[in-house]
Amino acid sequence: MSKTTPHQSQESGKPGNTGLKRIVKATGYSIQGLKAAFKHEAAIRQELALLSIAVILAW
């Protein structure tokens, strides 16, 4: 059995998404999370409603 040092990782050796592809995927995941929050969390809907009113008043 080989020992790993704290600086070594136990990755599978496959490179993950890098560069622009990683940013695009992360953005997609963020949008999915916001959609789920809007659908299931009343507090998010309330905060967005208040934000909309505040932006209009600040204009």
Automatic annotation (TrEMBL):
> One Pfam annotation, family name?
DAGK_prokar
**Residues binding ATP:** R22, Y29, E41
Cofactors demanded by this protein: Mg(2+)
Q: Name one GO cellular component term.
A: membrane
Cite the binding residues for substrate: R22, A43, I44, R45, Q46, E47
Q: Does the keyword Nucleotide-binding apply?
A: yes
Record: residues binding a divalent metal cation: E41
GO molecular-function annotation terms? Answer: ATP binding; kinase activity; metal ion binding
Q: What's the record's note on cofactor binding? A: Mn(2+), Zn(2+), Cd(2+) and Co(2+) support activity to lesser extents.
Q: Which GO terms describe its biological process?
A: phospholipid biosynthetic process
**Record keywords:** ATP-binding, Kinase, Magnesium, Metal-binding, Nucleotide-binding, Transferase
Which InterPro entries does the UniProt record give?
A: DAGK (IPR000829), DAGK_sf (IPR036945)
Protein known as: Diacylglycerol kinase
